[in-house]
Amino acid sequence: MHSNNFDYFQGSSLSDLFATDVADASYAFILNYPATAGWATYPNTKKYLIQDGSDEASKTSYSKICQKEPWKNLAVLGNAIPGIVISAAPKLLLDYWHEHFGSDTNIETLKESLYLDCLNESARVEKLITLFPFDGLKPEKHAVAPDTHYHLLSKATLAELGVPCPKYQTYNLDSVDINDIELPEFPYLIKTSHGLSGEGTYIIQSQSDLDYCFAEIKKYVESRLLSTIVVSEFIKNVVNNYCVQFYISKTGDIKLIGVTNQLVTNEGNYIGGLVHYRENMSMFFDMIAAIGKYAHSRGYFGVIGFDVLQDRDGSLYVIDANFRVNGSTPLCLQRHTLLKLGKEVANYSSDYRIAGTLEFTLKTLQLELERKDFIILSAQESVSYGKIYTEIYGIVTGETLEDMQHIEQRLKDKGLSL
Q1: CB 283 within 8 A of CB 316
Q2: In angstroms, rounded to a whole number, what is the distance separating the alpha carbons of residues 57 and 54?
């Protein structure tokens, strides 16, 4: 019998979620991650190291870090907390959000070349909610103490959370030569401590995988962007891959946000999530309680998402915990809106595209958008071989799985592809 009985959060925006915790000061949300690429005026290269690509050519792009990803959270931000972006979302997208999410998002667009200096000096914004601590933002300006947040976000912290997880060893590359590490038998995983969305996680099934991984890690170490790695057991016979999300308040209260079935490519890259809004989350309650308690004891408040693998025997293993707004948080926040429409199933992907401009896309898919059969979180026009495409982070919905698949097919017939 569970002593832990948690309730679902009843709102539909990030502003609603954070409401009670942002009453004591003026808060804003920095919607982009820090970066280490050449274009970054404020690279995270000193203290809060982030692994966003081992060399300039493979770094996560400006368009992903500063446009597509932030806009997706901006769509569900609501209007109580201002959202800080360094690249303005297209007006057509803002109009669409206004119509379909019903709130006028409070947006401040700051120049990439100045934004952290502006925020450091601003008397108007006292605290900033972030996805990751920023080297260039004063510690006292972070909503969660940056040292704490960085520790919580480390892959090496997993064993401290009090939940079942794969066996792993942590190595500090400042004191251990990577070539001296004793490695287990294939398969296993090597993870960098703070890899950005799948970057820095290597599944090692062969010598060539290992050679590639070591070459990448050496590049990170040479550019002084990495000091800690984790060598982890590989969980076999996996039947389910879940992302469980909840909110922990400053007072330690827990609200459920939702659980998604994660969709990953064979290479292990995250491509989206499937949610059944009526799914019972009680099998995760003990884990939620333990992780929530740990986070609260460290002074963290905000969204937490943790990834859980379930094997054939029904055993559960937490393989990652993200103390921040997660990729599928906006999907989970559609819960009440969609249940009111009788829609119980939804699928989020960051990988949709359609030929034509955003304006053309909104016209072509008008019927599906009005019915909320398809919800656009983020959209950006791009050109490939002279043709214009719109790249979309979106959600397909349905009353049942079959219904949702019919809608997916209809969208495909109209030119939307994954």
Answers
A1: yes
A2: 8
Q: How far apart are CA 387 and CA 144, in angstroms?
A: 44
CATH of 238-270+279-324, one of 2.40.128.20, 3.30.70.120, 4.10.375.10, 3.30.470.20: 3.30.470.20
C-alpha dist (Å) from residue 184 to 72, 187, 358, 378: 39, 8, 49, 42
Locus of tokens 């401009």: 357
Mean pLDDT of 373-384: 97
> Is residue 405 pLDDT above 60, yes or no?
yes
Of 107, 60, 69, 64, the residue nearest 88 (C-alpha): 107
Is the distance from CB of 41 to CB of 25 less than 8 angstroms?
A: no
CB–CB of 397/374 below 8 Å?
A: yes
Give span(s): CATH 3.30.1490.20, the chain.
155-233
Token reading at 132: 């990751």
- The architecture that CATH gives domain 155-233 is 2-Layer Sandwich (3.30)
Q: Which tens digit of pLDDT belongs to each residue from 163-187? A: 999 999 999 999 999 999 999 999 9
- Residues 7-48: pLDDT tens digits? 999 999 999 999 999 999 999 999 999 999 999 999 999 999
| CATH fit for domain 341-413, picks 3.30.70, 2.40.160, 3.30.2310, 3.40.50 | 3.30.70
Residues of the chain with CATH 3.30.70: 341-413
Residue spans of alpha helices (H) in 37-109: 62, 69-74, 91-101
Tokens of 188: 């296993």
Beta-carbon-side half-sphere exposure of residue 36 (alpha carbons within 13 Å): 25
pLDDT digits (tens, 9 = 90+) for 131-143: 999 999 999 999 9
Q: What is the mean pLDDT of residues 401-412?
A: 96
List all residues 6 or more positions away from 113 whose beta carbon is below 8 Å from its beta carbon.
41
Q: Is the per-residue pLDDT at 1 higher than 50?
A: no
CATH 3.30.470.20 range(s) for the chain read 238-270+279-324
Q: What is the pLDDT of residue 268?
A: 67
Q: What per-residue confidence (pLDDT) applies to 277?
A: 97
